[in-house]
Amino acid sequence: MSNNTTILVVDDDKTIVEVLQGYLQQAGYEVLVAYDGDTAVHLIRNNKPNLLVLDLMLPDKDGWDITRWIRGDARLSAMPIIMLTARVEDMDKIIGLELGADDYITKPFNGREVVARVRALLRRSRLEMTAHTHLVIGRLHLDLDLHQLFVDNEPITLTPTEFKLLQAMMEAPNHTFTREELLEKGMGYAYEGMGRALDTHIKNLRQKIEKDPRNPEYIQTVYSVGYRLISL
Predict the structure, then answer these.
(1) Cβ neighbours of residue 62 under 8 Å, at least 6 residues apart?
(2) CA distance 196 to 89
(3) Radius of gyration for the chain, computed over Cα atoms and rounded to the nearest angstrom
(4) Is 73 in contact with 99 (CB distance < 8 Å)?
């Protein structure tokens, strides 16, 4: 049974692709597959899938290159991306998140967890079309209907995760969120060990909204607790 949501799985390991395809199809998703970067780019351009599960290491274009290309294309930039990697080093994961991946899964993985991550990411990336809602704080204007951030009236591209994190903080200005609260609101879950991912998303947001990211005026760190957005 299909829910008309299309997932593109990209990995050069055909066994991994078959496993992911089976789990995702069983969950009701349409699944496209690619075993190399060039095929992935072709499918993304022509099919515009709802979500991308992307291996980091590919025989031609790697996952970093593809992520950078997607985030740089206004027509594709809102596409949720889950990076799939056999590399366990924190730096590899952080680089992927800094380039715009929304989440990462390390091999070997649990197929049910992958489905849960896909569902969480799709759920928070879908637009609420029932009302035109705007959040405005200082130089920041978040249009929830257009799914667009404006800083000083200039449009700024956010990943789905960055958008949800900023939305949560702008809806409760001056409130200190624990790291667990922000993980739940921004990523749909608060799994142990995801704190570094949250820190990277916050760093990316500061690069996009702050005049001086090293001395932020909006997103402030509350040490040993979490973060808050100051209403200027």
Answers:
(1) 37, 56
(2) 12
(3) 17
(4) no
Tokens of 122: 């799709």
pLDDT tier at 196, thresholds 50, 70, 90: confident
* Residue 90 scores a pLDDT above 70: no
pTM comes to 0.62
Q: Cβ(121)–Cβ(101) under 8 Å?
A: no
> What does the DSSP 8-state code read for residue 57?
-
Distance CA 30, CA 25 (A): 6
Tens digits of residue pLDDT in 100-142: 888 888 888 888 989 998 998 888 766 433 344 788 899 999 9
DSSP letter string, 144-209: TTTTEEEETTEEE---HHHHHHHHHHHHSTT--EEHHHHHHHHHS---TT-HHHHHHHHHHHHHHH
